[in-house]
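Render this sequence as a predicted structure.
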Amino acid sequence: MRAQDSATAQTPIAVRPMTRGPALPDPPVDLPAGRGGTLLALLGVVTFSLTFPSTAWGLESFGPWSLVALRSLLAAVIAGTVLLAARVRVPAREHWAALAVVAGGVVVGFPLLTTLALRTSTTSHAAVVVGLLPLTTAVFASLRTGARPPRAFWCAALAGAAVVISFTVVQSGGALGAGDLYLFGALLVCAAGYTEGGRLAKVMPGWQVTGWALILALPLAVAGAAVALPLEPVRPTAHGVIGLVWVAAVSTFFGLYVWYRGMAGIGVARASQLQLAQPLLTLFWSFFLLGEEVAPAAPVAAVAVLVCIAVTQHTGARRS
């Protein structure tokens, strides 16, 4: 035993020299795959479906520019508090360009353009934006990430978009107003923000993606509030305050958190098609909260949209 121990002790141990290689990418976060990711994305869709009615309530008390500025400012305060409490590190330099796209598209661009549109458009008519958003987001995601969903996915996505657009246009009497330019612009910037946010949520938690995007847009929110509040009338009402709090705390912060986390888990293109249900949910809330009329064809459109969603989720899951 002594000879063996001595031999063992004298045997040199190979040590791999330490080298300074390239910096490793951020470790992937724990992503909710399958049903968990789908449920989170659906929860995001439900919160987003209340955004237009809540914005309409907010416009009862605030001007459009003031409402958007206060919405971003309040959401940034919530995000900053959470980031500080959790002692989250500042994102790496290579992530700030994507965060700027999220901030410009989702935090500033979409809220501002849709709020301006809602001055002249009803919430049910504005739902046409959300009707096209799933298809537009899937196209952005395919171009940006290189994902190639199967042909059946694209056919179902096109069919779902056609059903939603036809339903909302018919309900609005087939007339397109001046606010539609704002709505189509909002469609493009939001799809870009969703795509970049979904990509970032693979390397950092979704709430951090939302939080840092809000912090990045904070200077614009402060400047916008300082300029808009003295120029636009402020008439505080219960509806106005509730609407502001909802779009800031729920739609902008919590909703984007669960939405980005769901997209990171099941894929941007697949998750985006769940938003086909959002216009119909918005129509329900518009009827229930705002008293707007809903066409009798709503149940038929709802069934058609649900079929399209089922096809996109099945084909997307099979390809994954």
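Summary. The first helix runs from residue 2 to 10. Residues 34-319 form one domain.
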